[in-house]
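U., I forgot to send this yesterday:
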Amino acid sequence: MTHRERCLAAIRGEVPDRLPWVPRLEFWHRVRLRQGTLPAELRSLTLTEISERLGVGCYASIPDFTDRSNPEAMIDRTLGIFHFPVFPYRVTLQDVDRRVTRRGQETLTEYHTPVGSVRAVEVITEEMLDVGASISWITEHAIREPRDFEVVGYIFSHLKVEPNFAGYLARRREVGERGVAVGFLLGAACPMHHIMRDLMPIEQFFFACYDYPEKVDRLAAEMEPFFQQIKQIGADAPAEVIFLGANYDDSITYPPFFEKYILPPLHDYAETLHQKGKYLMTHPDGENRRLLSLYLRAGFDVADSVCPYPMTSLRLEEFRAAFKDKVTIWGGIPATLLCASSTPGEEFRRSIDQTVERYTGESHFILGVSDMVTADADWGRMQYITDRTAKA
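Result:
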């Protein structure tokens, strides 16, 4: 089997010829390239070629947010809207005057509309880049006062959303049989999740839900058509797997919040995709213990970035037992295991051997590294996992 065939077989509930092994290498690669510490034999290779050299599947689920082939890709980052060619849709702001001012490492964006104006500030520092950061940090959110809700609602209700499959198809051709080119929609699963993640500081969001819930609810309703459009485009896209929603945590997207706002749209979208023979991937990379039963009810097919103990409280066997062969685990290796400074070699090998032996010959399991391979990960340890999965 090819890497792509192994992954799709695992997601379908079939047993691949060997355990799929698909780590997310972009953070490791980005920092090593910046530091000049990439192994010499890899310095002239693309990340896709490095994956092939290592003998692993090419991770092509979450886009590289540092890609600047489109200079305006991140221009609306503070709204949680992106313009990367690899996205299967294109978003255009209508009847909105956008003004961008760059001040060193800061970017100030002002949005002027007939109902008022908002501004937001993002920053990406050298220190962030040194540790592999892929996306800027919002230091001043678009919504800071009650009156800002109306302005942001106007912006979202005046978005033009169109299918744009060319960039995705180019990425799919590049990946080929090296992996599964996932159709990425958005990191937010629904409007309320989007407001929480991108439009307000988290504390202010929860205060707003208590102090003026009608404004929060109205904004969510005004954003809903945008979500419906991108989801329909994703369902029609030429991708077997569609990505929607990321970064859940049982203390932030706590169970009642998840059950009320995130579970229903994930469930409904999974049903829509299943009718088209497609699969839904989501990215639950936080603390998940109190959310596991809700994940199962949500009906998604792939849990990307499963991060077990000791980086979270849940052990891999607990994830596996909870998902009951209904959700495919993509992950399972704590990033710390690959770092010599964190884990002795003997402990690393014992853990990998046990994991490979346990899950070889089973379905619904794709071996990966928590959220990503970190900059201090050892190349030799990654090669050990490749060799071990090949021999199992």
